[in-house]
Amino acid sequence: MRTRLAPSPTGALHVGNARTFLLNWAHARAAGGVVLYRDDDLDGPRVKTGAAEQARDDLLWLGLDWDSDEGVLVQSERSNTYEAAAQRLLDAGLAFPCVCSRREIERAASAPHGSDGARYPGTCDGRFASYEDAHAQTGRDAALRFRTPPDAVIFHDLLRGPQSFNPSLETGDFPIRRANGMAAYQLATVVDDAETGVDLVMRGDDLLPSTARQILLQRALRLPTPAYVHVSLVVGEDGRRLAKRHGDTRVAQLRADGVTAEALVGWLAWSAGLARPGERLTARDLVGRYQLRAIPTDPVVLTDLPAPPAASEDAR
Ligand code: GLU
């Protein structure tokens, strides 16, 4: 088994991200698998200085490790590789240049839209022969969109069972390269996972619809499809995904408050059905008792975060 930990350095790691990475790591280590590390730093404007280093440091503190002789992949250094894949899709007629702005797409869409934005209405499909042609006709730099086939994508999630999504109805033709030339997440992930031989992808269930899009790209580029596990997210008591309004849930803050790695791993393991309430354990301990089927698929509601050890415990 080969998997990867791929944090996005767009902000600090909070307990929700930490839970996903811990479970991903334990899943691979329990199977004797290889763990790779990747910086998903393509989201230019949202990338925060120092966040990549902080994420690594937090994960090491939690007790995770990775097989670093395999090297760490940094997505922002791989634009030529992504560009070649985008070009293959363009040459094969499976993608087309598009000059629509997000606002134009939202205005053109009749249906209300979800978190992935409005469904692309197909405006630029068949309009331009090339990026240059798009620029000559409109004066704009073109993005590249993958033309979604009409059928639903069915795949098996190792934890949740059969899944069915229809990208052509949900997002429509989706971007694989932005107008500034940067690869979009869907394409970069697919290219990297294939090139590094990743055969198990474990991540948050907010990415389930993305998995369907990624499978379409794997098919179009004739790349293998890895096995997938999507774990639930940690949400606040209001049922919404963790954000500032839920207080400071950053791993770095818990560390600064004196919470031990064993207390946090224990809490995360408990939230995944793998430890008793209040139990403390190391990441290594978790590997010994890890079981995928113990993990609940319902969202984890953030209740009491682990507290720093009481003064009396400190003195021991
Ligand atoms: N970088 C993404 C994240 O931190 C994960 C992407 C993936 O696993 O494909 O949520």
Task: Tell me what you see in this structure.
With 316 residues, the protein is α/β, with parallel strands linked by helices. It has 2 domains: 2-76 and 232-315, Rossmann fold (3-Layer(aba) Sandwich); 79-154 and 162-188, Alpha-Beta Complex (Glutamyl-tRNA Synthetase, domain 3), CATH 3.90.800. It is 36% helix and 16% strand. The protein has 12 helices and 12 strands. It has helices at residues 15-30, 51-62, 79-91, 102-108, 131-138, 167-170, 185-195, 208-220, 251-256, 261-271, 283-289, 311-315, and strands at 2-5, 34-39, 72-74, 95-98, 143-146, 153-157, 161-165, 174-177, 200-204, 227-231, 234-235, 300-301. Strands 1-2-3 form a 3-stranded parallel sheet. The chain has a 3-stranded antiparallel sheet with strand order 4-5-8. It has a two-stranded antiparallel ribbon with strand order 6-7. Helix 7 (185-195) crosses helix 8. It is elongated. The model has no long low-confidence stretch (mean pLDDT 93). Glutamic acid (GLU) is lined by residues 6-8, 40, 189, 203-204.
